[in-house]
Amino acid sequence: MIRKLRLVSFRAYDEVELEFDAEFNRIIGANGVGKTSLLEATAHLGFGNSPWSGRNSDVIKKGEQFAIIHGNGKARQQDVKIRIKRGTRKEVYLADKRLPKLSELLGIFPITAVGPQEIELVKGSPTVRRRMLDSALCQVDTVYTDALSKYKKILAERNFALKGVKSGSLAGGHVLIDTLDEALAPEAGTIMESRMRFINDLSKHGAEIYKEMTAGKGGELSLQYKPTIGADGKGAGEISEDFYKKIAARRKRDLDSGDTILGPHRDDLLFIKGKEEMARFGSWGQARASSLAALLGASKILHSGTNSPVSLILDDCFAELDPDNTSRFVEIASRYGQVILASSREIEPPEGKKGALFTFEGVGNVRRTD
After folding, report:
1. Domains plus CATH for the chain?
2. What angle do CA 205, 313, 329 make, to 5 degrees?
């Protein structure tokens, strides 16, 4: 849970310090005043970077050379400071100790970030869905985090070797590729087995949340794992063996394309309404509700898998929801951790959780007014 947030030269903010409620927080203001920037900074505390912006330097206030994000929780070790300076690497500190790897920050402040673009979780590319899986799993499973990091590194080396063999510039490339395949397989097995277990749990929780959010009128929702090789019911070791056999069998085609086609980097997650894919046959309202249900389901899993309450960062994500669905969503979200939401319209807090209200007196000028 995030208790305090301090910003210096971040986006439109010169300097601001906010104290959040432990349960429910509303950031209400017109478009362009800096609501999303506050949530983006808050998300940095959990991920070490922005869930929505690409370049680090984008968050530094125009005319300044650095930005600072500083957050505290109730636990002593929950003290995160991030310094972003133009032209240099980002510096991340945990309890005043600099972290050599950004992955060491994961799980200190468990966070689920939801923005208006999260409808792409259903309607968009598989990359969006894989990012959601990785974001959730890396916060609760260090083995998964390590396997994913190794897999990406080996995969990059394999693709480089494929291109080298194809162009004739890499001597002994076939032997190298076989060595890389042997190294890639166990990491792929770990990743796919973890994703399979996670999605099985996520489907159950997401279906329950979706049904409640839509008052049973949105149809039945389920989530299905779609890996590039069969993984259902298999352990990591068996998946690893199958992966190695299949990636070796299709090496010639990979050499022709210069790219690795099989593997967790090509996995997908399907949203199913009844027996039809939500991406093709669901309405925008149903897609919005199902994406929110999946993200809340992920938060429920995070909530049970971490020692600290999850912070749900909700950025104006109610566009396709009617007022009743919005109210139900807000009430459900408040069960799974600390809610910090931003909206251009008034959002009523759930019953019994008045929480904190933050409003604006111009761009970058926010204060708590409850």
Report:
1. 1-110+309-370 (3.40.50.300), 120-305 (1.20.1050.90)
2. 45
